[in-house]
Amino acid sequence: MITPSIDSRDLRNALGRFATGVCVVTTRTADGQRAALTINSFCSVSLDPPLVAWYLSDRAPSLQAFSESEYFAVHVLTAEQQHLASHFARPSPDKFAILGDGVRPGLGDVPLLDGALACFECRTTTVVPFGDHVMMLGQVERFGYGAQTPLLFHAGKFMAREPVLQT
């Protein structure tokens, strides 16, 4: 049923019925500061050229860091990495402290998280505001992936799902 007037809370609840993957995006600013956050707005845009996009609230504390950085990395999380999704979703003075040696440098010295289901190292190509969010478009320069179970987000909850048997 479509509501004649849009209630933002109801709209958010309806949109939450769409299951998504869960990612952590990382970057490094020109002055060397690391930034990261949890997202579920990641999507493929093009295979040729290889482009991906994700969206960031225009009120996010890390907006400036991501908007001004030349590179970012999108880490698709596994079901076993729910703790990382929760951790990077909260404000923290040093979000990377809990990782210890579980971080290595990527393109542009962007921090890469170990153990992700997939990782896309991207050069930022376009930053465009849309409504209350900003679209970050990046060209994939390097990527890698595994075969673990993905972490999903549905109706406000983290979930893990195995493939459905084909009949």
Number of helices: 3
Total domains, how many? 1
Largest sheet: 7 strands, antiparallel
Roughly how much helix do the residues carry, as a percent range? 10-25%
Order of helices and strands: HEEEEEHEHEEEEEE
Name of the level-1 CATH class: Mainly Beta
Based on CA inertia axes, which overall geometry fits? globular
The quaternary organization reads as single chain
**Helix-strand category:** mainly beta
CATH topology call: Pnp Oxidase, Chain A
Count of beta strands = 12
Task: Evaluate the radius of gyration.
Answer: 16 Å
Whole-number mean pLDDT: 92
Poorly predicted runs of 5 or more residues = none
**The CATH superfamily title:** Electron Transport, Fmn-binding Protein, Chain A
Keywords: Oxidoreductase
Family: Belongs to the non-flavoprotein flavin reductase family.
Protein name: Flavin reductase
Domain Flavin reductase like: 15-160
If you had to describe this structure to a student in words, what would you say it looks like?
The protein is mainly β and 167 residues long. It is built from three helices and twelve strands; from the N terminus they run αβββββαβαββββββ. The strands form three sheets. A seven-stranded antiparallel β-sheet has the order 3-2-6-9-10-5-4. A three-stranded antiparallel β-sheet has the order 1-11-12, with no helix packed on it. β11 and β12 form a beta hairpin. The model has no long low-confidence stretch (mean pLDDT 92). Belongs to the non-flavoprotein flavin reductase family. It holds the Pfam family Flavin_Reduct. Keywords: Oxidoreductase. It comes from Cupriavidus pauculus.
